[in-house]
Design goal:
This protein has five helices and five strands; from the N terminus they run E-H-E-H-E-H-E-H-E-H. The chain is α/β, with parallel strands linked by helices and about 130 residues long. It has a single domain, classed as Response regulator (Rossmann fold, 3-Layer(aba) Sandwich). It has a five-stranded parallel beta sheet with strand order 2-1-3-4-5, sandwiched between helices. Strand 3, helix 3 and strand 4 form a beta-alpha-beta unit. Helix 2 runs parallel beside helix 3.
């Protein structure tokens, strides 16, 4: 039986973070959580999750800067990142891809669609195919 995928949720809202963690864990994922970008970046560096789900608006370090720093680090840049936000404008979507996100999803999240995205990004990463 294969190891479960490890998902890192970086989300400052405790309610959202806990609900998403419980939902994904209930679907067989190993889930790590962080409440801001700086904490999340530390977990990305130490745990190397299979996929990162990251909010944009957070204290200490926002999602844009966190994503940018992950992409700037050669040893981390292949980790797929899904930006999640309530700010659903074309400018936000464009910025997400400019900083290196693989996907942009609007909150509230459709968890079934999210799970498909997670599996797709993880599979493309393992196959070595482009992730965009």
């Amino acid at each position: 039986m294969p190891e479960p995928l490890t998902i890192l949720i970086i989300e400052d809202s405790a309610l959202s973070r806990t609900a998403l963690r419980d939902d994904l864990a209930g679907r067989g994922f190993k889930v790590l959580t962080a409440e801001n970008g700086k904490e999340g970046l530390n977990l990305i560096q130490s745990k190397r999750p299979d996929v990162v789900l990251m909010d944009v608006v957070m204290p200490i370090m926002d999602g844009w800067e966190t994503c940018h720093q992950v992409r700037a680090a050669a040893e981390l840049r292949e980790i797929p990142i899904i930006i999640t936000t309530t700010k659903n404008t074309s400018q936000d979507m464009l910025r997400a891809f400019e900083v290196g996100a693989n996907q942009f999803m609007e909150k509230p999240l459709d968890v079934n669609l999210l799970v498909k995205e997670i599996h797709g990004l993880a599979a493309r990463r393992l196959d070595g195919a482009p992730e965009r």
